[in-house]
Each structure stands twice: as C-alpha cells, then as structure tokens.
Amino acid sequence: xxxxxxxxxxxxxxxxxxxxxxxxxxxxxxxxxxxxxxxxxxxxxxxxxxxxxxxxxxxxxxxxxxxxxxxxxxxxxxxxxxxxxxxxxxxxxxxxxxxxxxxxxxxxxxxxxxxxxxxxxxxxxxxxxxxxxxxxxxxxxxxxxxxxxxxxxxxxxxxxxxxxxxxxxxxxxxxxxxxxxxxxxxxxxxxxxxxxxxxxxxxxxxxxxxxxxxxxxxxxxxxxxxxxxxxxxxxxxxxxxxxxxxxxxxxxxxxxxxxxxxxxxxxxxxxxxxxxxxxxxxxxxxxxxxxxxxxxxxxxxxxxxxxxxxxxxxxxxxxxxxxxxxxxxxxxxxxxxxxxxxxxxxxxxxxxxxxxxxxxxxxxxxxxxxxxxxxxxxxxxxxxxxxxxxxxxxxxxxxxxxxxxxxxxxxxxxxxxxxxxxxxxxxxxxxxxxxxxxxxxxxxxxxxxxxxxxxxxxxxxxx
Length: 463
Known about the structure:
- This protein has a domain at 383-450: Sporulation related repeat (Alpha-Beta Plaits).
- The two termini are 20 Å apart.
- The chain is 5% helix and 41% strand.
- The strands form nine sheets. It has a four-stranded antiparallel sheet with strand order 3-2-1-32, with no helix packed on it. A four-stranded antiparallel sheet has the order 4-5-6-7, with no helix packed on it.
- Mean pLDDT is 83; it is low at 1-31, 361-378 and 454-463.
- The radius of gyration is 23 Å and the shape is globular.
- By secondary structure, it is mainly β.
C-alpha cells in the first residue's frame, strides 16, 4: 500500500477499523491534504491548534485545559478525544469539541491507541482500562504484570510484553482470559498496525511471533545485531537497524527472509515511519540528525539537523516533516527539504500530529484549514494523471481509495452527461503538464495526462 501506484492489491486484515469517510465522486480532501498538529504547553493550559504545512495557528478551536503533561498518548479522530498522561500518572481524555477533560485512570504505567482508536491503559497493578467509542470499561482480569511494551490490535485486543520473571507475550481482550506465551527477549520489539504479528530483535536475528496463533514462530538470521525494528504500514515488510552495519535490512514477513536493504551513510539507532509508508526517518548512532528516506525508491533524500524525542521528529498526515531545531519547531516538505513553516519557541512544548480536523463551521476554524486543490488551474491546467477508466463505478471507487491510502491525491471523475466515457481514476489536479507528467512517471505503470476540456486524453510516454 505504501508503494506509488497500485502495485499491491493486498488488503489489511478484517477488523474493527473504521472505514475512511471519503467521497470519490465529488470535492474531497485527499489523504495527504488533511490533518493538523496540536501543541501542548510544557506548563499546562489550553492546547493550541496549527494547520499544516505552514504551521499557522488556528485560534479559538480547542477549549478546556490540561495540567502539566508527561507525554501525549494520541488522538482518536472519530471520537475527537486527545489522550495525555500527566506527570502525576493520570490518564486524561480531552474532548476536542466540547473542551471537557475527564480522568480515565490513575497510576497509569503504559497506554496506547489501537488501530480503531480504542485506548488501552495499564496501571501499576496490571489492571486494564479501555475506552472505545467514548465508553470506558474496566477489564475484569489483570494482565499479570506491568508491560514493557504495549500494542493495540484488531477486534479490541491488547498485545503486551511483560518481563517480570520470564519474558511473556500476552494477548488479552475484555471478554476472555489472557493468552500467555513465553519467549526469548533480546532487544527492541515492534508490532504491525493491526497487532497480528510481533517482531523481536535478538542477538543474531529477528523472531516473528503471530498473536493470532495461526503460524509457528519464525526466525530470520541477520549478520549483525539488530537494534531497532519497525513494520511498514501494511505490515508486509519489516525494517531493521543493526549495530554496526550501515543502512537498514528489509525483511519480507511472509517469505521469512531478508529481501533487500536501504542504504544509509552509517548505522542507525532509531527508525520512524510515515503513517502512509512514503517516508522513513532514521537517527544515526552519533549526532543530532534525521536521515530522510524516500521508501518507494529506497533513496536517501537528505539529512536535517534535529534533536530526537518521543514526539518529534515525525511525518504528519499531510506528508510534512515536523521537527525541532534549536528553540523552534519547523515544518519541511519531505521531498525537497524546503521549509514551509516555523513556530518560534515551540521546542519546549509537546507536539502531536493527527488527521483530526474541526467540524465544518466550528468557530470558523475549518475555513482556515488547507482545502483540497480543486482550484489548481494554471495556464495549462487543470490537468490530471489518469491511471484507469472503467464502466464499473464501484471498482473505480475502490481503486481510488487504495491510491489515497498510499498517500496519493486520487479521486474518481464521473463521465460527462450523455457520454459513455466511463469513470476515470485520476491524480491531481495539477497546474502544469510538467508537474502532472512528473507524478505519472513515479507510478511505474501506464498513465495518461487528462484535461477535462479535452474529449479524448492523448497517451503520454510512461516509465
């Protein structure tokens, strides 16, 4: 799904993941054109909202106050809840629309959000509390220990790594007893977005553990000691940073073997992925720098100076690169490393990117947020990159959704009234033919440059 175009037709596992609310036959906000960033003051107070990519503050959107925050757990965009852990160990839920703040749990040791927005919190006694669709639930059975690592999974399941006594992998749900499995724990642990597979770094390779019990554990040997692991958004590939080897190893989760690698100037100690799978951020073992990798072509785009913290650097939903530089927080375009926005003095605060945006008309804030590029008309435009045309509207809509989930500005153009042209799956619009063809060449599949005023789009050379 992270690849440019539609090379893979694999779909994510069935789960309680809420479907994306998007319309493909009318004006819509593409996946890469939505999202905001929320600023949490180091001294507490009312969170502040900034639009992307220019980091212009949108005032008077979020009401309510939060105390001094230790870390931001995440945002459930459907419920419009911001979850934070305070320095006193309390887990708070701030309703971004009403401004009401409620305490979810006290003495919280670990907390995370699942793929469907469900919150999971574990307190100092191993007791679990979850919040799903604004409903709070105290689980009847504890985990049996405080987890070192905590992941949310599909179908409101919880995956935990507990290291008391012997390391254990625990899979739990509110309505059934926990399932426990012992295993050898040697280093970093990563999970797929849906929590169906766990990767454990060992001394000489990676162990893959299925949380669904459908496959036996698999071991993939590596020539160097793994340091950090992270799955691609689709869960098909695992990226591994090693102790001394420059670059990253890439493992196919199904073939259980190393398939290729990502070249870097040196070894990496930390890796983070764009939620759409387009960009990878790697931290070198020495120095405060972020290497930016264009994953579809496995090319190092460049490096920027920044310090690394739990919240930043990060890639925002619109594709902006957000990081700290000195006392400021700065936004960059990941493809060109051009600065697009800056918040002076923002480095002391906590920041969290989210696809949540205020409701239309909510104190006029929606008008200040970036809109879809429906007016991208220049002397030559608007121009579209057409990747498919079909008489099957449902098939075209599904293809556009797949491209949107990969971070492309895809949509469906319906046929002109009275014509039998079919439903066009397109990217864009773009103001010039040069820009449209540049996007098309990156797809790795046939494409056409289409202009709505042109009855029949001429074919364009492809690569």
